[in-house]
Specification:
alpha+beta, 8-stranded antiparallel β-sheet
Length: 380
């Protein structure tokens, strides 16, 4: 067995074992790429008219959002400001266990809409994409293993595609649309697979980094040349033995006002739950709404509201910046609309590869043998 024959066997059996899962992950990824643009067109409560006045403080948003959910404590909510022309949101899990998102006018705290994320279309698509609706502990290995196999498939596919002779390369770059359907299917699998391989590899690896954070830590370390940058990570601890005076106003309001001063250019501000008082309260600010790359990180004392630690994007190490950009790279949005279009098309091609590959395998397995021509001499 030659090297390419061995690679072909590996490619075949790995593809058959993971094809269905790769198809589901890829097609849901393609659907999810433009979810913000689609939702902006179909969900009018996501937008508001910009005002000259400052947005209301987080405590007012929490009070308005929880008015119909008296059993939920404000300290257990996530509050997000998305910029001057977008509604703010308060996220929490209600008494029935439903993940709930409330949209509010950030200037008046008027509730605009509320929905259960369990029934939201794009939330379902995201769950299928990330977990296949399996328990998280199982999904981690099923999805992660399939994506890892897909990475191997991309590499072995390029090895199999690579022509031995230069004169063969031209025909490997084009699809013979006028040929029989099986030849067209063969070209769709090989030619499109080759063109999409590099971008698909990036999408697959960034997806793996989300499933297995240790992989992203390795990339971060490599990008930093093996050096450690402790200032990039929020490591502040709360001393529960030291008496601290309580804050004079609600903690989320202190957090919001502080980060507004420290990160004045940030459009999006995400304030995490204030917790039980044993752990710091966290806040993240982003330079652009719905973009997660340019990020400043903060931690605060959960009782006094004193800022414990801050990590600003401009002073972060190269590795941490790469880590922060992982989601935006995965969705293509780090390059704007053009990047999203590329991610969408490559995701569609990735979804097609298990289909066209299975057709190739099935055709070879069930290939009809041509009847042997009988010579006249044999009939004499």
């Amino acid at each position: 067995m030659t090297f390419k024959q061995a690679v072909s066997k590996v490619h075949l059996w790995l593809g058959l074992s993971s094809g269905l899962i790769v198809f589901i992950i890829s097609i849901t990824g393609a659907i999810f790429v433009f979810q913000d643009e689609i939702r902006d067109l179909t969900e009018p409560w996501r937008k508001v008219e910009a005002q000259t006045t400052a947005p209301v403080l987080p405590s007012r948003l929490q009070a308005a959002a929880l008015a119909r959910h008296p059993g939920i404590a404000s300290k257990d909510t996530w509050v997000t400001y998305f910029g001057p022309e977008r509604s703010a949101t308060v996220f929490f899990t209600d008494s029935s266990g439903a993940p709930t998102q409330v949209y509010l006018n950030p200037y008046t705290a008027q509730v605009l809409h509320e929905h259960d994320l369990r029934t939201h279309f794009f939330s379902i698509v995201q769950s299928i994409h990330m977990t296949l609706l399996l328990p998280e502990a199982v999904a981690k290995w099923v999805v992660g293993g399939s994506v890892l196999i897909f990475v191997i498939m991309l590499i072995t596919g390029v090895v199999m595609w690579w022509p031995k002779r230069k004169q063969e390369r031209k025909q490997r770059f084009t699809i013979k649309w006028g040929a029989r359907w099986r030849r067209v299917n063969y070209d769709l699998h090989n030619v499109l697979g080759f063109y999409a391989a590099s971008i698909a590899l990036v999408l697959a690896l960034t997806g793996l980094f989300m499933i297995f954070p240790w992989m992203l830590n390795v990339v971060t370390s490599v990008a930093n040349g093996g050096r450690e940058y402790p200032q990039d990570v929020l490591t502040a601890k709360v001393d529960s033995l030291q008496p601290v005076a309580a804050a004079s106003q609600p903690l989320p309001d202190i957090v919001y006002q502080t980060v507004r001063r420290r990160s004045p250019q940030a459009e999006m501000i995400l304030i995490g739950p204030t917790g039980t008082g044993k752990d710091p309260a966290y806040c993240w600010t982003y330079q652009k709404a719905l973009r997660y790359y340019y990020r400043d990180d903060y931690s605060f004392h959960p009782v006094s509201g004193q800022m414990l630690q801050a990590s600003f994007h401009a002073s972060k190490s190269t590795g941490t910046k790469v880590s922060d950009a992982n989601y935006d790279i995965h969705t293509g949005q780090i390059l704007g609309v053009g990047g999203k279009i590329v991610a969408f098309l490559v995701s569609l091609i990735s979804a097609s590869l298990p289909v066209t590959g299975t057709v190739i395998w099935w055709g070879r397995r069930n290939k009809t043998k041509k009847p042997r021509k009988v010579r006249v001499a044999e009939l004499a």
